[in-house]
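Write out this protein's structure.
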Amino acid sequence: MNFQVMAKPSGASCNLGCTYCFYTEKVNLYGGPAPYRMPLEVLESFIRQYIECQETLEVQFAWQGGEPLLLGVDYFKSVVSLQREYAGGKKVTNTIQTNGTRLTDDWCRLFKEHDFLVGLSIDGPRKLHDRYRIRRNGKPTFDSVMSGLTLLRKHKVSFNTLTVVNDDNSRWPLEVYRFLKRIGEGHMQFIPAVERQPYEAAENLGLRLAIPPPNGDLGASSRLTPWSVFPDQLANFYISIFDEWLRHDVGKVFVQFFDVALGNWLGVGSGLCQFSPMCGMAGALEHNGDLYSCDHYVYPGYKLGNIMETPLAELMESATQQQFGSSKLNSLPGYCMTCEVRPACHGDCPKHRFAETPDGELGLSYLCLAYKEIFSHMAPYLKIMAELIQAGRPVPDVMRILRQQSKDRRSSDLGRNAPCPCGSEKKYKRCCGA
């Protein structure tokens, strides 16, 4: 069985106080003062079990938090040493997500030496980034993050950018995209901020965000936090970026959302649980060895067990986890089952499914209208890119096709027996005009 586990060796400990963060409040689940630190015996057990569980010859570890860099360079030297000890002939790789403010030359040397892929959290230019990504005292973090980015570049460490799309930066899509393109390495990930305000169950645990209720009871709370992105904002954000990317940057800039959409269009799968028919294959491991169904479901009702008491594979293969994963498909409203964009979104992430369908059925994604608009807009262009792939041609050819089609629409003199303007050497009627 192949599954993923998002490991949080520092738990919810973080040196920042980002307004929209859904994870730092998890300290209330464990009590005691932060910072947390995964004991070496738990770390060793996790690394050994995780490698043994994977059926593939390459095993990828994903380290997140909180802020994992709080643990120090020596801690992750121990990580690499344990991975070597238990690799058993498999290739082991690492990704690590960081806010960038703790990066040093020593960290970057470690990442470069052991080929870590770094995810750097940054929400756009200064005015947009500093809106919510702040320190606990309210001070901005943009300059610290950019200093960390400079160190990554200095040491030639591979990195992606991760941007939380919120109510503020969503209004400036091209400014965000062009900034990330300028400062990054051409790989971007966007995550919509959608969080509900607390209700009784959450407040009893000292939490400020809603607990996704178990057993499909989705009507407990739908009050949104003020930083959550609105569906029309998200639609405009993705469509604006897609249109610019489509005409200038295909093959040069890789946006995870677009790759996922193309994968679903081709029928090969999205590779991302949010837009897959079912989930449950990505657990979250807390600092003490507790395993939860998902990173967004680290609440008592979704705790599978502890890997120091029950084997990791047994927990991930448990009936509880299988039910968690299959319920994504089984709980889809009837409205979704007949939707033309369902093969693209598959109902979205379950944590977003707290809206009502037009006929009053609960379980619709809050972002449904956004994804309908986005995927409908993308559809004709995904079709062209899919056909290019199936024909063994490079996907960036889509840019040339669109430029030529624009010229053709202006001239309106392209005959069906003329050579296709895409350069395939076929007749237009046999190629793009088919």
